[in-house]
Amino acid sequence: MTIEETRARLTLAGLNLIGQALSIFDSDLRLAACNRQFQLMFDLPDALTQPGTPFEETIRFLVGRGEYGPVGDIEAAIRIRVEQARAFEAHYLERTRANGRTIAVEGAPLPQGGWVTVYTDITEIKRQESLLRAHSVELSEQVLANAERLAAANRALGATNAALEEAKRELTEIEARTRQVTEMMPAHIAHMDRNFIYTFSNRRAHSVMPGSLDDPVGHHATRVLGEETFARIEPGFLKALAGEATVLEITHTPSGRRIRIALTPDRDRSGEVRGVYILSTDVTHEAQTRAALAQSAKRELAAQLTSGLAHDFANLLTIILGLQGRLERMDDLPEGAREAVRSTLSAARRGGTLLDRIAAISGRRELKPQAVALRPLIEDIAAMARPTLGDAIRVETFVLGLDQMLMLDPGQLQDSLINLLLNARDAMGPLGGTIRIKAHPVRDTWVELSVSDTGPGFSAGALAHALDPFFTTKGGGGSGLGLSMVYDTTKLAGGTVRLENTEEGAMVTLRLPMRPAGEAQAPLLVLLVEDNDDIRATTREMLRGLGHSVIEAANVAEAEALASLPELGLVLSDIQLGGSATGVDLARALADRLPVALMTSLPAGAGLRAEAPCPVLQKPFDAAELAALIAGVRR
Q: If you write DSSP's letter for every residue of 166-219 in order, what string do you get?
């Protein structure tokens, strides 16, 4: 016998010991349970006491036997009582049965549907009341009637209180479940009244906005969020309190996180706003990705706009250089004209250099993040730049709290820092000074790098426009693309650039997304699809060196046959394969089932590569680049 069957038997035995009759019907009007007294009180056959018996059959039996007195239309009487049961409400009543006995009937609905009814034989109680009425000359009829009504009212009140207690218990369980669910969500869910006092919170404020109160209930929003953060959200609060739902995004200054906040008015039945529901979510990674995509789109547009112009301009410069070269070689050219020719040639060559720089900033580039130790990288960059900076320049490096490996593009970061070092050197002039490179984490969100100098600082115009392409303070000696390239590279990585003046000079601050390389990834079973035997062997050894197991295929048909293996964790395929199907076709076929990555030697602008629905690794690549690709696909 199971535990459930044992409990059911114990429950039924307990109910049979009760001196009152009891029946429970479910929401489908079928008998769920009854005790022995219920059968005895109404003299019911065994068939009508079995679980699942329709309520209508029980009523038919009782009406037919005269339980409810003389009835003209039996079917109509049955139908009325069934309809009353469907709209069941808590009640208490007393009635005299056909056998002359009086019973009290107490009914209460159940939260799960259905109802429970308790029948009490009060014949003796009524008889005592009758005797008391007959033999007492001191008690008035009014007192007896009141006492009788009071007793009935007390019994009805007891039934109502029982129903209320059950409802209270059910609401308490619902509230506990609701709180548990909200506390599991990776967002801060809260309610605030019109006085900016929190009345509810799922206690996730601190995890979304570090530094906030962990349990804000009962506190004013300025204390929960901090005055600066509250001031930035307050306009949205005021809109919501005025009845307008709003969504806003802010940068949480203490943590550097990007937070999206949805504010919904809380209205009462009359429509008056009595508070605000708050949903705050951390969208930092989304914002970083959005910024990177936006910058990539801008660069793509710039490349499209400049490519045609650059082509024509390069042709014109070629003609100019050719003609001026012919003039320069003429023997009878006046000295003044010869100087003009040399100046023209110099300007044309500078125009060619400028075209190269425009192509570098607007051309297609891809980030190649890999696991990097930031401290040695910065020290190497400083050491490499010192000879170029000169003896009058001192470079100091400070790296704090960034000892773990980080996923960064070292080439892009090196280009940016060297560009900033050269700008700082030019700003300080021949007298030289000190350049400081500092790096530290901003919570677990950003890696912040700053390059500061002891020069004169940025002018007002430079602070406003230094990141704009072609803006320069170096006159004819600068292209105006240095800081613009730093800005472009940083935005492409999902970061930000800030220019400011300090007490000593100028400072440029870069913030890059903090992406720890983390622990070694768990080994995978990788399906390697490559039709070149040598490349397949080399890639196989790289994967095995990273700890992964490898199975191999030479074309799409073989790969699809192996893709059903249950242990398979990743598909890595070349785009160009033998046969009519390509790696892009394979990626589309498996995208909903498995993580897929592609590799290719096609240039970034190739049409087939642009159709890839997944990450693409540019050949040639090394083990570090392959590991970074796998880590990104798994994430």
A: HHHHHHHHHHHHHHHHHHHSSSEEEEEETTSBEEEE-S-HHHHSTTS-SS-TTS
